[in-house]
Specification:
alpha/beta, Rossmann fold, N-(1-d-carboxylethyl)-l-norvaline Dehydrogenase, domain 2, elongated, binds ligand FVH, oxidoreductase, NAD(P)-dependent oxidoreductase, 6PGDH_NADP-bd, HIBADH-related, 6-PGluconate_DH-like_C_sf
Amino acid sequence: TPDTVEKTPLTLLGLGAMGTALARTWLAAGHPLTVWNRTPARAEALAADGAEVADSAAAAVAANTLVVVCLLDDASVEEVLAGADLTGRDLVNLTTGTPAQARARARWAQERGARYLDGGIMAVPPMIGVPESGGYVFYSGPEELFERHRETLAVPTGTRYVGEDAGFAALHDVALLSAMYGMFAGASHAFALIRKEDIDPASLAPLLADWIVAMAPAVHHTAEQLRSGDYTQGVVSNLAMQVAGIPTFLNTAEQQGVSPELLGPYFELMRRRLAEGSGEEDVTGVIDLLVR
Ligand code: FVH
């Protein structure tokens, strides 16, 4: 039965908020787990749940072939693994970093005899171990290595493999998080507009959420235009019309006593693109202005 199938043993370095959440799911699923953390106290609760606590990062790495690291940043990964023998290890790095850091870390691991997968976590700790939360991790690196450990890696949250290039998981991670910050910026401006009025922010919130969801599918249209190179394809609200509306947004902000500093840069790009004679296009041309 599935309960009697041997579960892959693994090592986890880093027991911060995310590492601890990951550890709990592997333990709950019956995986033998060796852990190490710079501050040992964080490992105590996990030991009570069955984790083997190693005395050092090197000892933890020596304990298992599959080694997962979830540390603060790339510098801490370097520091923690400096004294460990990585020969023959399958190193999975779930620490957030840049694509360049991931590629360099992959070369670094290979030079030390390890195979390397990079991961970008699209979840916050409470989403780990909760399949319906929609969380997942982007993985990139050798596909064969991902397939070998897919089942174990899928225990804490969903998995999405995005390619052999070790930098692609980080690139997808940062791309999605960048879009998220743009959304937060827009929502912040919207809340600021009503801040001094007799409007309950709690009444605006569901309207904002519904509107963002309604507008989100526009990204598919943008992708099609980028693919074809024709930014007039299927245009509904052209750039000329949208730029004509900018004073309405800026004047409303001024009248409400709200700084335009979040929206201003985007409007500037729209105006620049229009000045290039692209009034019949969608706003997709702004992307070309961003790519240096
Ligand atoms: N938490 C979140 O919401 C996000 C969700 C998306 C992914 N991120 C990334 O996950 C990495 C770990 O994040 P975390 O939430 O676990 O972070 P912390 O709770 O701050 O724990 C950090 C761990 O790193 C250890 N550490 C830091 N510096 C060093 C070092 N120089 N040497 C050894 N270990 C180090 C720290 O150890 P300690 O402070 O307990 O001794 C924690 O184990 C991260 O890349 C997020 O961007 C999380």
